[in-house]
Amino acid sequence: MHVWIATLAACGSSGTEDFPSVLAPLEENQAPWPEGTPSDPYPETLEIVSGGDAELWWAHARGFVHADAAEVWAAARDADTVVDRREVDEWEVTPGTVPEFEDSLTIACTVHDVLTISYDLTWVHELQKGERTAPERVVAQWDKTDGTPFIDTLTGSMVIEPTDEAGVTRIELVEHLKASLRDDETIASYLRDLHGSIAATAHGDPLPTYSR
Q: What residue ranges do the domains of the chain occupy?
């Protein structure tokens, strides 16, 4: 869960993140793919491995979404879908904040937890293979680019690729976090929510609701 308690509720700035000119996963993904069955070789589930220490927590995830890659990518570009709705109480979206990429947006996140903290999370998307209507490889990255100094590192990557079965897409996720009183379960919780939210949006279903 991405929540920072009131004793840490302060505002500051980490400056603007310099995204690489060519996006790539933050590191090699160690998570296994979900195990399929003869009737469902690509189950719409997520496998996660995580670890780290107080210097840097991490989590890796791999899973499938039962929708084509264009629908999955469209869902991943929707701020309401990707924002951490379990913890963020209010958010405002500014599109096109990093115009050198195919898509980008910055989400100004506000968390009310006795006191209020805020931070900006910027997402960028790069179509690396295929067409916008039929992507074959998309890489996205998100980074905390401004806000509370008590989140030292909050960054992640996503890879979207179609499988060899029509209407099924694979998704790979990596996130790094260094923040007071947080650990790898913080990240794992968000990645589970993110996968479920992307699947819901891609299916045309209502977004899941979460409570702290």
A: 10-203
